[in-house]
Amino acid sequence: MGDSRPFVVVLAAAAGLLEALIPPSNGAIIFSALTQVPVSRTFAAGVFPGFVFMALLVVYVAWRCRDMNRPPRATAAERWQAFVTAIPGLMTPVIILGGIYMGLMTPSESAAVASAWAILVGFFVHRELTWSGLWDALKATAITTSVIFSIIAMATFLSVILTYTRAPQGLITFFLEFGITPLSFLIVVGVICLILGTFLEVVPIFYLTIPVFIGVITTLNIDMMHFYIVFGAFVALGLLTPPVCVGVYTASAVIGEAPERAFREVPGFVFVGLIYAALMIAFPIFATWLPSHL
Is this model's pTM higher than 0.85 or not? Predict the structure, then answer.
C-alpha cells in the first residue's frame, strides 16, 4: 500500500461523521434546538446509522489495507492494559448519556459535568494535562464559542428576514407545484448540503438551511429523524470533497501530513459515504426505529 499516512488523514476526516451520529453529538443538539425535537430522540436516531457507517468504513479499510505492512500483533496483556487505560476516557459518554436518559441532568448540565470529569482525568489519571494546556484549551473554546454565537446571531437575523419575506412559504409552494416527492426532496437537500459542505462547517450549514427546509419537511410528512440523518450524511460528505475539503485540511493539520498528498485517497471514502447516504435515504427505519420506542 505504500505510505499509509495520507490514507489515515482521510480516514480520520471520514470518521468525523461518526461524531455527528453516535451520541453525544453536537449536530444532534443543534438540530434539536432548531426543530424543537427532544434531544434524546435525536441522539437515538443516530445510533443505528452510526453503526452502519462504521461497518462500511471497517469493510473499506480492511479491503484497502489488505497488503499494508502491519506491526507485530499486540499481546493479550498489552491489549488489556490499553483497555484499562482507556476506561476513564470511555466513562465520558456514559456520564453524558446516562445523565440525560436517567433524567438526572439536562444536556447542558451533562456537558458541564463531563467537562469537569475530563479535566480530572487529564490531571490525575493520565497526567498529561497541564495548567498551560488547560488555559490554551479554554482560550480556544472561547474563540470557537464566539464564532458559533456570531453565526447564531446572523442566522437569527436571517430567520427574521425569511419570516418577513415569506421565503419558506414560497419554497413550499414551489415544491408542491413542481410535484416533488419526499424522496426527490431528500435528494435535492443532499445535493445542496454536499455543495455547502465543501466550503462551510457543519454548524453554519445547520443554522442557514434548517429554518428554510423545516416547512417543506412538515408539508411533505417527512419524518424529522429521517431528515436529520440524511441531512447530516451529505453535510459530512461535503467536508471531504473538493475544492475546500474542510475535513481533510483539519485532519492533515492534526496528523502533520501535507493535504495535497491525502487528496488521492478522497474518492474511495466519498464512494463509501455515498453508499451510506443512499442506504439512509432508502431505509428510513435505520433512523426512525429507535426514537419511536423511547
Answer: no
